């Protein structure tokens, strides 16, 4: 099945009792048993819920994986991955990543004795020098948040296989429409479902997708034992949102290109971060592992001063200044004070994240209106 057909049909079956084409919201905590232990596969909704099952199967299909697991947030999904490890284990991570990921790594799991190495992964071979007998996981985010760096997933997976290390990819920025890390050799795909998958800025949810039976049972055990599960109402909203994922992503990509090209030629803009530009330092890898380049981009202004950047962010009429991304409406974010404030300034700057960087999540409005808004805001 092709992507758009899977988005609409995979994992979803008409309701067995009524034929309802939309998966019902099974708003129940428990399920009646005929006699002790004799049930229909459902005992308690932390463990199994039919609405969540439909979404988990749909997400697995979109990522060409065997199993999906949903969590109460993207951070809940990352937390479940980290619970696979124990004190003394080491994790190698990209140094440009979502602020919340950096925070859970350094402020929570580092206290439990897990060691993290944050490195620049522009040259994927550099991972090798950080691998030792304690290394258990390589954590990739690509494209990265907020600098839109591109990391070679297949290259990382090849190195990891040689050392029997797992590879997890935060695929939030790309969505399964643009990139499928499992096909490139990754072991775990992670999504903040909150973003493109849900797509309408009305749900917070996370997901993991895997192929390996043993890895799935270990993560499903953690999902149930730790209990950060998503609710049936949210699963319904995401199933509804995913039915148009391919249509939305197509427009996000078209608008992303139009705005990247507009900004590149603007006399007041100094740098545009978007992987679809041939000037992007990893354009070749982006082109080989992604089907298109998405609707996330960042930029800086000439002169590089905070007053100019602030004025632009305050002047938008169509873009809204808000955290998050991937919804139908265009958003503007100031990473240094918003999404990435949990990363210390000196660590941010070492990774190339300036305080004056402006990040845009390009929505699915008409590109002309978005460009007009940028024109008047930049001035
Ligand atoms: C938002 C985000 C997360 C965290 O997901 P939540 O659903 O907000 O918990 C993780 N990674 C990336 C790249 C994100 O953008």
TrEMBL record:
CDD domains: CGS_like. It is an enzyme of class 2 (transferase). Coiled coil: none annotated. One of its GO terms (molecular function) is cystathionine gamma-synthase activity. Pfam families: Cys_Met_Meta_PP. Its EC number is 2.5.1.48. Keywords: Pyridoxal phosphate, Transferase. InterPro entries: Cys/Met-Metab_PyrdxlP-dep_enz (IPR000277), PyrdxlP-dep_Trfase (IPR015424), PyrdxlP-dep_Trfase_major (IPR015421), PyrdxlP-dep_Trfase_small (IPR015422). Belongs to the trans-sulfuration enzymes family. This is Cystathionine gamma-synthase. It comes from Rhodocytophaga aerolata. The lineage of its organism: Bacteria, Pseudomonadati, Bacteroidota, Cytophagia, Cytophagales.
